[in-house]
Amino acid sequence: MAEYHPADEMRCPMHFCIGQESVPAALSLLLHQDDVMMSHYRSHGYYLGKGGSLAEMVAEFYGKATGSNGGLAGSMELGSHERNFCSGAIVGGSMLIPLGTAFAQKYRGAQDISVSVFGDGSFDEGIIYESMNLAALYKLPLLAICENNKYAANTEVSKRLGRPELLPKVEAMGIPGEIVDGYDLDPLFATLTAAAAAVRAGEGPRYVEVLTYRFCAHVGPQADDYLEYRPATEVADWQSNDPLAKLRAQLAADPATGEKMIRIEADVELEVAAAVDAAKKAPFPSPEWALGANSASTYAPIAEGFFREPQPVFQGGQNETRLEPF
Amino acid sequence: MELDPNVFVYGIGADKKSAIFGSTAGLVQQFGPKRVFDTPISEQALTAIAAGAAHAGLRPVLVHQRVDFMLYTMDHLVNWIASWRYVSGGRATMPLTIRAIVGKGWGQGPQHSKTLHSWFAHVPGFQVVIPGSPADAKGLLMSSIMSNDPTIFIEFRSLYAMKEEVPDKPYFIKHGQALVRRSGKDLTLVAFGATVSMAMAAADQLSAINIDAEVIDLRTLAPLDIATVVTSVAKTRRLLVAEMGWLKFGAAVRGRGRDHRRGLRGDWQ
Question: Of A34, A224, A248, B226, which residue is most buried, by most CB within 10 angstroms?
């Protein structure tokens, strides 16, 4: 997408997750279709990890009617309704839906869980503390995952939080948690597996803080290091430890896996190219349809059935209704 | 709540003896604490619960003791709930209802008296309902809960003492259907909520001096039944909008009426 974005046919601001691929990859192995996941706006990895269609995602970036959100959301509010994934642009917003779907899952006695993924920037927002309190109080099946990359846009965590440690704040709200290195894949997967299992077993909410790093700019395909908000050595340090690069090297070293990896990557290249091609050719959504998408204008069947009968009109007691003096 | 096990009602004091000014009386006894419960003073997180639970197919009814407290929740309401169906490309719905009560009268002060109906009605994606009588309150609340769109249901507490014949059986009043409560030929008097009974009383006084007023109860501000107002004004040639609130929704009614007559698209709600 970084390659295609400069052509300016994709107008939505795009927040790439380059450097932060490990958590979505791990979750893709742990979550079921009926589990609900909501992420922040750095969502592409999570969308795909939850099983969202690549072709629909690309079409959504191009704002086309064939997109996962009908072309009405773009990258920042990307979702896959069928795969129970959603996201949004407001920092701290990604707790919103999972808090409620976790409530519904408990209300119904379901075995599914709700997962909320947010960044360290969310700890600047009051809603995170309020949501965590409620999740703990109601013992909701909520798995809260923080991708701590130390930056909220261009501002480093020590400039935003009087006390930069995040885990104690979560524990203070009543949710047990752990910190794990997002660049060490085995412990990361083990921690997420255990946390998800605890939530699924009905033990209440759990928090996992993943230490990770964003190589790319906060937003857009061009690098933003010219803004000089973080040391170049810091970026280089994390990049030298990139688990994706290490995994590729490991797979390439063994001829059997190396060959398979090359084939998979070639297939993905083709898939992406085909998705871009299809997206460019697809139509934009029509204004009439888009305006109609705003309201369902429907009712539960019991009310719809009632409306089909002739309606009694309650005029109210025209002279009997009295206003209580106040 | 009897008709659908997915309906639950919650808010500060919902299961207490005070029963939110009596409006939730008897519910926790009948339906139990899973479906009727008290909450912390966390309006925003409670609204998140409504949004997510509705997205998952439950029918939450969140109650605020004052409309003013909804201001904590404007991000959730406007950035998320109102546009949720739109941003999902028409796939998702949020069948939630938020009941919010307007303070009763003299002495409540600015932080316990607001109605904010204009703000909510101007945001595409909400239904905004303001009943003017007990029978309407029942039918409109039932419809709002069974509606698949998010609904803000504003109740003037000054109307809680109003008496009217209300049927026992379930019934639903469709949103977007204004009610002509009194037919007349000289003046169209548009009212909603607390001004409905005032308008009826005023119409009585006006008829004593030979002015025949037509009283229209809007019932729902969004969707707005502007056609009924326009039909009436075509007959009477005079329009007076009586509202209790501080932003001029009445101006919007006049403006939409003009647009409607000129054949412009005024029905985007």
Answer: B226
pLDDT band at B147 (very low <50, low <70, confident <90, very high): very high
Domains with residue ranges and CATH for chain A = 5-287 (3.40.50.970)
Structural element, H or E, at residue A133: helix A126-137
A-contacting residues of B 2-21, CB under 8 Å? Answer: 3-4, 8
C-alpha distances in Å from residue B3, one per residue of A147, A255, A307, B142, B184: 43, 63, 16, 10, 39
* Tens of pLDDT, residues B161-200: 898 889 899 999 999 999 999 999 999 999 999 999 999 9
Would you call B48 and A293 a contact, using CB atoms and an 8 Å cutoff? no
Residues of B in contact with A290 (CB under 8 A): 86
pLDDT of residue B265: 46
Task: Name the residue type at position A183.
Answer: Y
Instruction: Give the chain B residue whose CA is nearest to the CA of A96.
Output: B48
User: CB A165: neighbour CB atoms within 10 A?
Assistant: 12
Nearest CB among B55, B149, B194 relative to A100 is that of B55
User: Pick the catalytic residue: B64, B112, B122, B175?
Assistant: B112
Domains of chain B, first to last: 7-159 (3.40.50.970), 179-261 (3.40.50.920)
- Which residues have C-beta within 8 Å of that of residue B202, sequence separation ≥ 6? B189, B213, B242
pTM over 0.90: yes
pLDDT (0 to 100) of residue A323: 44
Contacts of B83 in chain A (CB under 8 A): 294
